[in-house]
Amino acid sequence: MERRDFVKATAAGLAGAAVPASLEGAAVPGAAPRPRAPEVLMRRLAKPVLVSDVSSIRHKNGGPESAIERAFRGIVEGEDMLDAMVAGVNIPELDPAEGGIGYGGTPNAYGVVELDSCCMHGPRKWAGGVAGITGVRTPSLVAKAVAERTDHHLLVGRGAQEFARDIGMTIEDDLNTPRSRARWLEWRKRIDPTHWLDPKERLEGIDRGRIETDPDRIRLDRQEMAERLDGFARASLAAGFSMVDDGLIPEHEFWGTTSLEAVSPAGDICGVTTTSGTAFKIPGRAGDSPILGAGQYVDNDVGAAGSTGRGEANLYNLTCFLIVENMRRGMAPKDAGLEALRRIQANTIEPRLLNSRGLPKFDIRFFILNKKGEYAGLAMYGQGESTFAVCDENGAREELLVGLFEGSPRG
Q1: DSSP 3-state of 322
Q2: What's the longest Cα–Cα distance across the chain?
Q3: Helix axes 319-328, 333-347, angle to 10 degrees
Q4: 6-176+252-403 has which CATH code?
Q5: Which residue from 87, 135, 92 is spatially nearest to 270, judged by alpha carbons?
Q6: What does pTM read for this prediction?
Q7: What is the DSSP letter of 339?
Q8: Which of 113, 158, 233, 298 sits at a 20 to 30 Å CA gap from 11?
C-alpha cells in the first residue's frame, strides 16, 4: 500500500520546520507576532500556502481574521478551496476602510464604483469573471456564480448586475462611502482646477499661485498643469499620482486590487482576484483582473499567478499565463516572475509610459506559487508597496517583494 503522509500540524509544532530554499520573501523586521495557524489533519501531498497582496492581510473589517487567514483556515479544515478563498476576499470587499476593492472602492471618472473580479478553480477546471459591475459589494461571489451556474467565463456591465440580481444578491444604488466620494471630488478638483475650486481656499484668498481668482477667468499658468490638461488619460493619472504623493490615497489602493493564490495540502490550486480598477478610470474600462491569463491564471498541474498594478501591461502580455507556462517549463516561481517583468519592459516603448531612465513608468506586482508550495512575490520596482502577504502553517505575515529594478517608477 502506498505510504500516506498524514500531518497534524500547528504553528507551534512546526515553528522549527525547514523552509524550502526557493522561498524568496524575507520576513519584515518589526512585524507583529505571527498568529497560530489552524490545525491541519489530512493527507498531505504539498505544502499548503497562500500568497497575495497586502490588502488581504491588513484589513479585517472589525473581525478576527484577515482574508488570507480566513482562506487558509477554510482550506486546511477541508472546505472547498474556492469557497474558502472567496469567503476570505469578502472580508476586504466589505470593509469600507479598504479603498481599492468592493464597498467604498475608488470610483471611476464619473464617481461610480465599478468592480471587476475573476476566479479559477484548478481541480474542477472552472473559471468565472465579471467586469464593470455596479451595485454589488462582493463581485467575487458573482464571479464564482458565473463559474458554477453558467456556460460562460465572463459577464459584463448591466448584464452582470442583472445576473447578480437573479441569483438573489442585493443591488445597491451607490457603493461609495463618504471617504471614496471625497477622494473623487478632490481628484475632480485637481484634474480641472478651473472648474472645481476649493471653497475653503476661496474664503481664505488662496489661489495656489494663479493670477486670477474669478472662476470664469482663471487660466493655467504652469506647464505642469497644462500638460495635465493635454489629454484626459494623462491628466487623470497625474492628478491621481499627486494624491498618492500627498498621502491621500495609499499606493496599493490607487491600483486597487486583491489577488489571492493558494495551494492546498492535497496539491490543488485556486485563485481569486477582485478590484475596483485603476483609480478614476474612464467609465467602462475593464482591466486585467477579470481576464483569464492577464491578471489571474491557474493551472492545477503547475501553479498560479495573480497581479496588481498597471492592468494594461498584463493585458498586452497575458503575463499571468506566461508566468504559469514558464513554471510548466521548469522555472522556479521567482525566475518565472522576473522573466514576465522583462517581457513587460521589452514591450513598453511609448514615451509617455517611460521614465527618465527609459524604464516603465509604472509598477506591477506578481504573487506566484507552484504545486509544491514554493512561492515568490515580484515587482517591477518593489518600492512604495514593498511587501506581499503569505500564510502557511507558520501563520500569516508580510514578506519583502523582489524588485526587478531599483528606485521609483517615476524617477
Answers
A1: helix
A2: 86
A3: 140
A4: 3.60.20.30
A5: 87
A6: 0.82
A7: H
A8: 298
